[in-house]
Amino acid sequence: MKTNRLTPLALIATLCAAGCASNSELQKVQADARDAQRLSEQAMAKAREADARSLSTEEALNRSYRHTLRK
Fold first, then answer.
1. Distance separating alpha carbons of residues 17 and 9, to the nearest angstrom
2. pLDDT tens, residue by residue, 23-60
3. What is the pLDDT of residues 8-18, one digit of tens each?
4. Domain ranges of the chain
């Protein structure tokens, strides 16, 4: 009975080709992850800025409301 087997040289070539493709894919995923991290940090900075503005506006409205109640 004849079996289909890869020769050791063909097996090594196949593994090397798969490894090279895998490395380039890994590099792309890592670059995408860095981009996502950068975007996440930018979004968090904007969210903190919006939160600070919101708190500032809330304080101003509260002062105005308290001032109106005193009249």
1. 12
2. 888 899 899 999 999 999 999 999 999 999 999 999 99
3. 666 667 666 66
4. 8-71
Q: Are 43 and 35 in contact (CB under 8 A)?
A: no
First to last CA, the chain: 103
| CA dist., res. 69 & res. 13, Å (int) | 83
**CB neighbourhood size of 17 (10 A):** 10
Rg (CA), the chain: 30
Q: How far apart are CA 1 and CA 28, in angstroms?
A: 45
How far apart, in whole angstroms, are the C-alpha atoms of residue 35 and residue 41?
10
pLDDT at residue 71, as a whole number: 72
